[in-house]
Specification:
single chain; alpha/beta; Spore Coat Polysaccharide Biosynthesis Protein SpsA, Chain A; 9-stranded mixed beta sheet; two-stranded parallel sheet; 11 strands; 17% strand
Length: 280
Amino acid sequence: MPQATLEPPVTVSSTDDSSPGLYTPRSPESATTPDRTGEPRLLVSLATYNEAGNIAALIADIHKVVPHADILVIDDNSPDGTGHIVAALGETDPRIQVLHRPGKLGLGTATLAAMKFAMARNYDYLLNMDADFSHPPRYLPGILAGMSKYDVMIGSRYVHGGGTENWPLPRRIISQTVNMMVRFLFRMSVKDASGAFRCYRVSTLRNAELDRVRSRGYSFQQEVLFRCHKSGAKLGEYPILFANRRAGVSKVNKKEAVRSMSMLLYIGLRNVFGLELRRG
């Protein structure tokens, strides 16, 4: 399946969301109102746990770059009040919505919830970002421009022009090793299959057999990309500099990292031996 890398432009202007949740403040009826700007209907999703120091500034920065975007925050009952901050912002800005969940249910289930939300409300694109400023909003125009040619655009650290900021050597080695393993086992030529900074065509998500996604932790990003790839999606990459978080504490969990690596090996070996065929 064809995949490609988009280089930066020469000129740049300055499966389980069944757990209890409550969307605020907009009703489903108002959420399906057609976009009046002529732009594709875009939903930006942000999964949060204790991001009170980042969330308001991040939402403001996103809207500076893509003012037509709706933003959905999936908050896992953050003790620092992140969800309440977003709900208050949504009371005065109809572009902002929040899904309050009862506890830490994982990044994978949060992203799946956003995908189902986007499909149910007929958005054109779903763009997922981390909520800690490690995915700078300045890259949004380049990623969105790639959607004219591709079905999934990846904000990529490992194509020409991309990189990481102040990462220790062991972390870089682990990340690159995982991506090499995924390229081999999943038969995908993308350089960065593990990053969460991505834009999906919502019609691609409808066809990607998301009910087959087993991962709920760090391996979710690789598996959902694999499901899109198996559905025939064209994958593109746009270079980004992955930045360290501005505020708060990293959520990296070593036990989950080991569990996710095991899941990737399991799915990858199934793919190599022809056991991950498309249904029908």
